[in-house]
Design brief:
Length: about 270
């Protein structure tokens, strides 16, 4: 089961690094286009602003899917649940749809955070729980430790980064991947291969790259403040890449373009290499 794709949330609006009026304007544009899934995190510092904006949207709560993530700074037992309760107050809701651990524990021991995540679910703070930036072995540990099966592992995912081992493990463990940096910081728009494939379908190279991700069974987080880009990112459900096109894009993975690594986030793990 993939709670994002099965719920019709192929593309979520990712709120990082937006704040203030820029965030509110972009969220309203996204909602007008049809986005119903919104992704935030304690580390983004915008949960209150996201909650304020969600309350102004003319969208019933049961049509929204809201994801937030617990910061590693709040993984200590004394801090974890109070931080989730604060997130709920900021988001102005009794329950989020998805609660993730944002990064692996900085000391390499994820057990305590996983235990607290389970308690948060048991208390009804989240309809679904999951992980983020977990390697294969970390995913295996999470599945064995949590009594509620993790519903997602949110990771950097795009055609220029080889995550095949992670994909294989996700399928084996039944832990769906979701993608951040899905447009690869704009790199999708610069690829002649993607441009060529997109043109065959009357689409842009970026849309071809996002469609590749979707056909891998991976739901997408994408952010833009421009209405045109928000619309293009959203409009990837009306065409399909054939096997040859998917294989051509697969070859781009050998580039090994990692955006969010330990130089940006010290706890970022090395991905399992093919």
């Amino acid at each position: 089961m993939n709670v994002y794709l099965d719920g019709g949330h192929q593309v979520s609006f990712g709120t990082f690094p937006l704040r203030g009026d820029e965030l509110a304007s972009a969220m309203r544009l996204a909602a007008e286009i049809g986005y119903r899934s919104f992704d935030t995190a304690q580390m983004y510092g915008n949960e209150r602003a996201v909650g304020d904006c969600l309350r102004t949207l003319d969208v019933p709560r049961d049509q929204l899917f809201v994801t937030t993530k617990v910061s590693p700074n709040n993984f200590a037992v004394a801090d974890f649940l109070p931080s989730v309760e604060q997130s709920l107050r900021d988001l102005q809701m009794d329950q989020v749809d998805m609660l993730l651990l944002h990064w692996p524990d900085q000391h390499g021991d994820n057990a305590a955070a996983l235990d607290q995540l389970q308690i948060a679910h048991d208390r009804g703070y989240a309809a679904h729980i999951g992980i983020s930036n977990y390697t294969v072995s970390m995913m295996e540990d999470a599945v064995s430790r949590l009594s509620t099966h993790p519903a997602a592992n949110q990771v950097e995912f795009h055609p220029f980064l080889n995550t095949q081992k992670l994909q294989d493990a996700a399928a084996r463990l039944n832990v769906p991947l979701t993608a951040y940096c899905a447009v690869a910081r704009g790199k999708l728009a610069t690829s002649p291969v993607l441009d060529d494939i997109g043109a065959q379908h009357g689409k842009t190279g970026t849309q071809a790259g996002l469609r590749w991700t979707l056909q891998k069974g991976v739901a997408i987080n994408a952010m833009s403040t421009r209405g045109e880009n928000l619309q293009l990112n959203f409009d990837i459900g009306d065409f399909r890449l054939d096997d040859e096109e998917m294989a051509r894009i697969d070859q781009l993975m050998d580039e090994g373009y990692r955006i969010v690594d330990s130089s940006l986030v010290p706890t970022a793990p090395q991905w399992d290499k093919p």
